[in-house]
Design goal:
- With about 150 residues, the protein is of the alpha/beta class.
- It has one domain (about 5-140).
- The chain is built from 5 helices and 5 strands.
- It has helices spanning about 5-20, 45-55, 70-85, 90-100, 125-145, and strands spanning about 25, 35, 60-65, 105-115, 120-125.
- A hairpin with a 2-residue loop joins strand 4 and strand 5.
Length: about 150
Amino acid sequence: MHPDDLLGLKDDMIAFIAGNGLRTVNAYVPEDVPSVMFEEHGPDAWKDFVEHAKATNVAFVTMSEVVLEKQDIEMLIERTRVHRFPDEAGQDLDDAQYLLQHIGKTGYLQIGFAYNGIMFLYETATDWYDRYQQWMEAVADLGSIVLDDSDED
């Protein structure tokens, strides 16, 4: 089952973390921090992750979420218009229509804990959030293309 809103899962996580005697700190761990990604899968894999955190005697677990907002989609549409020709915009408009259905929903959750100088992370995302991320990366890639108009004669 792939829910399209992870808010219920977030609430379950907070309750389970507290039930294991740990606190939750709102914090996102970026990619440039030394980390290990938890790779167990399944609907309750995050519970195993929290139990690993408890076994290390940490006091808290970090938690981050992404809730889709209308401004996020509007920004992507605007950046896409700047970098694409009008006849290439069809797929982007389809993506925008698809994502508009998910405004206000939680699409990404990250929990983590620090142990011996390394962050251990568990992440989960909805299908629509993955599509949103792909669109953001495509727009970023378009923005980084540099055209060289100089003559090489």
